[in-house]
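Hey L., structure's done. Input below.
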Amino acid sequence: MTMQTAKASVVPSLNSAVRPHFLLIHKESKSMNTPAPSTEAHAKTSPRLPKILLDKTLVGRLETLATAMMRRSPELGERLIDEIARAKLVSPEKLRGDIVTIGSEVTYRDLSTARVQTVVVVFPEDADIDQHRISVVTPVGVALLGLSVGAKISWVTRDDETRQLEVVTVKPPAER
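Output:
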């Protein structure tokens, strides 16, 4: 019989084994015969996830979008669900202007390439790449949602490349 004690911090997940970009960090693991699941390689490449805040009035719509994404892109749908689950939900009037939400204009830096981009995070029906309006159900849209200025997060591109971005500036949506 194997005895194992482990304290771990886990980001809520529907199926954390599928997504390499979520943290499961064993803080302490003692075993007589069988080692704890290895997350060593992942822990080296994934920093601790930053705190995020979400407008609680958007959660129902975001959950519906995430569920719809499960058919086309299960990893992305689950990532959005995970982000909603780990977010602190606040009323719209308590959401600070430097927090990325739907309609925010965000300037971010890709730390892998040093490229700086400015985009507006929008619902899918309002997305227009020529206007720099990105859908919240794109990899970078999910990564940016709920972050504040200075926050850094890893995200996985559509080409399955892990990158890290940093939020440089956030302009709140015109309508709130």
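Residues 88 and 110 are 25 Å apart (CA to CA). The domain at 53-171 is CATH 3.10.50.30 (Chitinase A; domain 3).

-- N.
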